[in-house]
Design a protein that fits this description.
Length: 450
């Protein structure tokens, strides 16, 4: 069951010694990079105390110097368009990557690690796609790879999973890790408005990007789920291992039905340790709209806030809440990592690296246990309910509640199932869809575990 060790004894970094300056290169000067530089310069004295030596920014790499004319970085003479040369400077010890994207930052980050520089990145897509080669390069050079800002920005969750919970057994992590989708779903819940109207509002307020696909279709959350699952279960999980569904099909009617049953709908990143009847362990990482009880701690996470709910064997339930995006909140996490990496440069040693020793298999999504909330319109006549309940029974699915309402001459039926395998639930819905008395399946939404 073991395939790797944590922090293999490769190059030992013995440290420069207290009082020695630590050189920093910042790659990217957007919303996050500009706040990182500002806060580093404003709090230089405090950072020196916390790191053991002064932190000196050696340069800020950008794609166009003109674009940032007059900025703080420009005033300090730090701007350069030559990121590679900046990384290669002998007086640069730590490279801070806040560019975004995958291919170009991957090349720069690998180059930095291979040249013995520690790396701090906020780039979830990069870490979720390439953790193996990044960790390998960091291990080989004996340097740090920090990425607290990659998941839920200011909320400390990577550090707690890597360090504070290293002595515990994490059972599950459920997170609202995308602020844009939480804003949209919360606004739909509180106003009754449609998805399209609330997406437009999120765009107007600057939460959603011009192309909102990465957020609303769950790609951003899936990268974060991969990172959380890797850390929680000591197993390498990439974004491709995460089952992903977005929120664009959620209707005002779904939200209203959720409310009527005492629930709300959240886009959750769910990472779980599963144990089958034979005691075999596997893990599941998935992102999909999920019904949760309004009394669940995650239900009160409103607007664009993020929260991560962890259940661990000894610790019990933990919840981390706060700002999951934005310049300053992201800079806060980046700066914490810079201080950690700088301390190691000054005093020697490394932070915990990638831990993949458990190497658990990723469960087939069809085998994942879940519950469904199914809302449908059917003909209101004798035998229809009996026909439908028989189909559930044929697929070994037990019903928890069934509600029927009159609707425009039809019957509206809302089924809530007990826990069953995803594959059986999906097959049931497929079979039900094809029945003559079933006029429409209005929605199928999974419920959080009880
Ligand atoms: N776009 C993300 C969000 C923040 O809406 O939360 C960066 O991951």
């Amino acid at each position: 069951m073991t395939n790797a060790t944590t922090n293999p004894a490769t190059t030992y970094n013995s440290g420069k010694g207290e009082g020695e300056p630590v050189g920093i290169a910042i790659l990217g000067y957007g919303t996050v990079g500009s706040q990182v530089l500002r806060l580093m310069l404003e709090n230089a004295e405090a950072f020196e105390h916390r790191s053991g030596g002064p932190l000196e920014v050696k340069g800020v790499a950008v794609s166009s110097v003109d674009k940032h004319a007059g900025s703080l970085a420009d005033q300090k003479g730090l701007l350069t368009t030559d990121a590679r040369a900046l990384i290669d400077r002998d007086d640069v010890d730590i490279v801070v990557e806040v560019i975004g994207g995958i291919d170009y930052p991957r090349e720069l980050v690998l180059n930095a690690l291979r040249n013995g520089k520690s790396v701090v990145t906020a780039n979830k897509a990069l870490v979720a796609a390439h953790s193996a080669e990044l960790a390998e390069a960091a291990d080989a050079a004996g340097v740090d790879l920090y990425f607290e800002a990659a998941v839920a920005a200011a909320i400390p969750v990577v550090g707690p999973l890597r360090r504070s919970l290293a002595g515990d057994q994490v059972q599950s992590v459920a997170g609202i890790v995308n602020g844009t989708t939480n804003f949209i779903l919360d606004a739909m819940d509180s106003t009754g408005a449609s998805y399209d109207d609330m997406l437009a509002e999120a765009t107007r307020l600057g939460y959603a990007e011009a192309d909102p696909t990465a957020d609303v279709e769950g790609y951003d959350a899936a990268s974060k789920a991969a990172i959380l699952a890797s850390l929680a279960f000591h197993t390498r999980v990439t974004a491709d291992d995460v089952h992903r569904e977005g929120i664009s099909s959620i209707t005002a009617e779904d939200i209203e039905a959720a409310k009527q049953s005492g629930n709300t709908i959240k886009l959750l990143a769910i990472c779980e340790r599963l144990v089958d009847d034979q005691g075999n362990e596997s893990i599941s990482a998935r992102v999909h709209p999920t019904l949760i009880s309004r009394s669940h701690p995650l239900a009160s996470v409103d607007k664009s806030f993020n929260a991560v709910f962890i259940e661990a064997e000894a610790a019990g339930r933990l919840m981390f809440y706060g700002n999951g995006a934005g310049g300053n909140p992201t800079a806060s996490a980046v700066l914490g990592d810079i201080v950690g990496a700088a301390r190691n440069k000054v005093f020697g040693g490394r932070a915990p690296g990638e831990s993949t020793y458990a190497n658990l298999p990723i469960a087939d999504f069809g085998d994942v246990p879940t519950r469904y909330h199914i809302d449908m319109e059917v003909e209101d006549r004798i035998g229809v309910l009996a026909l439908l309940t028989q189909i559930f029974a044929n697929h070994s699915i037990s019903l928890r509640t069934v509600r029927q309402e009159e609707k425009d001459g039809h019957a509206r039926l809302i089924f809530v199932t007990h826990t069953a395998r995803e594959r059986d639930l999906a097959a049931t819905v497929e079979e039900v869809k094809g029945l003559v008395p079933v006029k429409a399946i209005k929605s199928v939404i999974r419920l959080a575990a009880q």
